[in-house]
Amino acid sequence: MVGLAAEVLARRVSCSLFTPLNLLLASLFLYTAYSFLKPAPAAVIPKEEPAIVFKTFTPRTLLPFNGENDAPVYLAVRGRVFDVTRGRNFYGPGGPYANFAGRDASRGLACGSFDEDMLTKDLDGSLDTLADLDREQLEALQGWEDRFSDKYLVVGKLVPVSEAA
User: Fold this and answer.
1) How many domains does the chain have?
2) R_g (Cα) of the chain, nearest Å
3) Residue-number span of the structural domain to which 67 is assigned
4) What global pTM score does this model have?
5) 10-residue block means of pLDDT along the chain (165 residues)?
6) Is the Cβ–Cβ distance between 123 and 63 less than 8 Å?
């Protein structure tokens, strides 16, 4: 009889321990304990971008920055050299503005033309003064310059060979 009573008592205790509410609370406790005790994920150190040094470019020294062979893509507007590498799809090889890469793009942007004859032919001569542009072309150029200033870093200035030191 004692054995039977002990068995009945053990069943009642086990039945009362394994109720749905107790199982839910036990699961919640175990999850919370695991969340606090699990190791933190390893910190990821961001990749450091190379420092950009402001340089003085001539038309000839700017030319290699045309995006070919994974080179950065630079272009000049009114003597300011912009790093447009982030826009490689537009300004790099195969892009719609690719002929401006590594060049002074001022006249082409002002005139809305991507033709080769908009680019300076004599890389060792003087820079294009843009003196013959009309008011509408100068406004268009200003719009482009503002867009580049807002979106890209200025990495240098463009000077004629005679002023390069």
Assistant:
1) 2
2) 34
3) 55-163
4) 0.69
5) 59 65 84 84 78 89 94 95 94 92 94 86 87 94 95 95 79
6) yes
